[in-house]
Each structure stands twice: as structure tokens, then as C-alpha cells.
Design a protein that fits this description.
The structure holds two protein chains of two kinds.
Chain A lengths: L8 E5 L4 E6 L7 E8 L6 E6 L4 E2 L4 E4 L5 E6 L8 E9 L15 E6 L1
Parallel strand pairs in A: 1-9
Antiparallel strand pairs in A: 2-7, 3-4, 3-8, 5-6, 6-7, 8-9
Chain B lengths: L4 E3 L2 E4 L5 E6 L6 E7 L6 E7 L2 E5 L6 E5 L5 E5 L8 E8 L11 E2 L3 E5 L1
Parallel strand pairs in B: 2-11
Antiparallel strand pairs in B: 1-3, 3-8, 4-5, 4-9, 5-6, 7-8, 9-10, 9-11
The chains are: A mainly beta, B mainly beta.
Chain lengths: 114, 116
């Protein structure tokens, strides 16, 4: 799986959009970009994933550059409950057994400031 | 719709003992993966079970073993516990039967294992 690079920490004011970058310059054509977050003392929570098109769901938007070497997770209106560690992961989509391992880095610690 | 459930939530053991952790996958899921998360680190993949067989394994010694039951639930067993085994153990489930192989894994809140 391709490695990802994320800033170790970021701050964002409550109510503003939080934009979390991720570099994955060695991503392969069959690898998806996944985002998870982990609030203290809880398990990782799935947020969103995508291949090459921008994606949006009720939690966030995912913007993937045209060359797919980087992506940005956008939380449109950050709240205090969005304070967490955010992980960007790339993972092969197709495997013999369907679901390959997730390789986590150290993520970005996002702090929402009141 | 129950999510992934793990038991117990906390556990304290001493060096040399063995431990069994349990996981019930999200309804409709058939694949279970286990991860170890040391303090301040991201989760590390231990192994994955599908159709009651270990399908993929991370860089963990044979002291770590597992099992998947016909109802898709799973156990993680760790023998000869070491101080370094103290960690949060996470279970994640997913579905192969949903067709597309990009389905996300969903995590439980883990078992916090402390070794004294």
C-alpha cells in the first residue's frame, strides 16, 4: 500500500471549514483514499473514501487532485465534537479476499477552538 | 443496527498469562480484522478472518492467534503476555458479500489491555 503524509497537528476555529491535507504521491491506479478519525478513547470512525472523483457525504467532502497524488478532507462547519486524530489511508480496492488491511500512519491531530 | 461490539472493554493481566478478546461484527458483515494500537500510535494490523480462516497476517508473532465462528464473530488470543502487549485492541468488520471490494471497515471501541 502507498504511504501517506499528513501534518501532525492543525487547529480550526469552531464554525469554520476544516481542511485536512494528505499526500500520497506513490498511489497506484487501483488504490482508494480512505479517511477515518479517532476521538479519544474510541475506535476509528469511517468518514469517507474515493478513487478519483470528489466525494461528499453527510460528514465531509473529499477532494482528490487530478493526478491523485494528494487529497483534502473538508469538514464544512467544524464543531468541538470534530476534535480528533484524522487518518488518511490508501488501500488496494481489489483483492482475492475482498478486504485488505488498513495501514495507519500517525494522522493529523485536529483541534477545534471555541 | 448494532455496530461492532467488543468485550471486555478493559482487562488487566500479568506477564506470562494468556488472554482472549471477543468481537461481534456489524450486522451483515462477514469479515473481521484485528488491530493493535499502542499509546500515541496508529493502529497496527494483526490479522484478518474470512470464512473462518486467517486470510492475511501482519508482523505479529505466533503468540497472537485468532478464530472466527460460523456466526462471523471472532476471538483474539494472546499467549505468554509481555509488558509490550499493553495496548488498545481493535476489531473491525466489513463485508465481502456486498460485492465491491472497496467497502470500508467499521471499528469497535476496542479492549484496553494492561499488562502488569
Amino acid at each position: 500500500d502507498a504511504k501517506t503524509t499528513q501534518p501532525p497537528s492543525m487547529d480550526c476555529a469552531e464554525g469554520r471549514a476544516a481542511n485536512l491535507p494528505c499526500n500520497h504521491s506513490t498511489i497506484s491506479g487501483n488504490e482508494y483514499v480512505y479517511w477515518y478519525r479517532q476521538i479519544h478513547s474510541q475506535g476509528p470512525q469511517y468518514i469517507i473514501h474515493g478513487l478519483k472523483n470528489n466525494e461528499t457525504n453527510e460528514m465531509a467532502s473529499l477532494i482528490i487532485t487530478e493526478d491523485r497524488k494528494s487529497s483534502t478532507l473538508i469538514l464544512p462547519h467544524a464543531t468541538l465534537r470534530d476534535t480528533a486524530v484524522y487518518y488518511c489511508i490508501v488501500r488496494v480496492a481489489i483483492s482475492n479476499f475482498g478486504n485488505e488491511k488498513l495501514t495507519f500512519g500517525t494522522g493529523t491531530r485536529l483541534t477545534i477552538i471555541p | 443496527d448494532a455496530g461492532v461490539t467488543q468485550s471486555p472493554t478493559h482487562l488487566i493481566k500479568t506477564r506470562g498469562q494468556q488472554v482472549t478478546l471477543r468481537c461481534s461484527p456489524k450486522s451483515g458483515h462477514d469479515t473481521v480484522s484485528w488491530y493493535q494500537q499502542a499509546l500515541g500510535q496508529g493502529p497496527q494490523f494483526i490479522f484478518q478472518y474470512y470464512e473462518e480462516e486467517e486470510r492475511q497476517r501482519g508482523n505479529f508473532p505466533d503468540r497472537f492467534s485468532g478464530h472466527q465462528f460460523p456466526n462471523y464473530s471472532s476471538e483474539l488470543n494472546v499467549n505468554a503476555l509481555l509488558l509490550g502487549d499493553s495496548a488498545l485492541y481493535l476489531c473491525a468488520s466489513s463485508s465481502k458479500k456486498q460485492g465491491a471490494n472497496n467497502q470500508p471497515q467499521h471499528f469497535g471501541d476496542g479492549t484496553r489491555l494492561s499488562i502488569l
